[in-house]
Amino acid sequence: LHRVDRRQRQMCIRDRYNIMESGMIAIAAALFAAILVPTLLIIQNTKKQSKKLLNGLKASVTQNNGVLSQHTEQSNFALGIDKANKTIYFFKKTEDAEISQTIDLSQVTTCEIATKKRRIKKEKGFEELVEKIALVFISKNNSETKEIELYNEDDTLLTDEITIAEDWKKTVQSVLSDTKEVTEQKKEQKFSTAAA
């Protein structure tokens, strides 16, 4: 009888461990699902939003018979360039409106980044908050500037718009410098044929 009791007690202990192990697996699976499902939904929503923005940008490009050489999608805007036709395309979607802009780079001399900031007093000094980030295109006759607003604190949260602005400034400046070199070469050819 003693051996039977001991055997039964061992079986109870083993069953208790199995129940605890099953409970831990169920808790781990529930936690994993609680983290994974929202993450997957956010990723899926971001991809859908990015696709909508790109489609809006492509519609503008197609309307102007252009071809996108390079493009970027951010939380509420898409920015692209047709390097062959030297044209910038911009599409922004806010809660209130859809904004589409086209800028002819053949009429532009330079591209700059405009950042509007404000200072807020904190317990230990001041903190600067970015209110707005834009790419500013200055025309050849300096009489006109065009602006593409990449960030406005009223529309979205600031993520990596500053980096995007810097990258696009470099891209635009590269296209502008290529245009300038071609123009200078044409002037040199005209001069040398006129002299001959």
Give the terminus-to-terminus CA distance.
123 Å
Summed up, the helix count is 2
Fraction of residues in H or I helices: 40-55%
* Class of secondary structure makeup: alpha+beta
Q: In percent terms, what proportion of residues is strand? A: 25-35%
**Adjacency order of strands in the biggest sheet:** 1-2-3-4
* Mean of pLDDT: 83
Assembly category:
single chain
Give the strand tally.
Answer: 7
Shape: elongated
Largest sheet: 4 strands, antiparallel
Low-confidence sequence ranges? none
What is the succession of H and E elements? HEEEEEEEH
Radius of gyration: 30 Å
Describe the structure.
With 196 residues, the chain is α+β, with helices and mostly antiparallel strands. The chain has two helices and seven strands; from the N terminus they run αβββββββα. The chain has helices spanning 2-63, 161-195; strands at 70-73, 77-82, 87-93, 98-104, 108-122, 125-139, 145-152. It has a four-stranded antiparallel sheet with strand order 1-2-3-4, covered by helices on one side. A three-stranded antiparallel sheet has the order 5-6-7, with helices on one face. β3 and β4 (98-104) form a beta hairpin. It is elongated and about 105 Å long. The chain starts with a helix and ends with a helix.
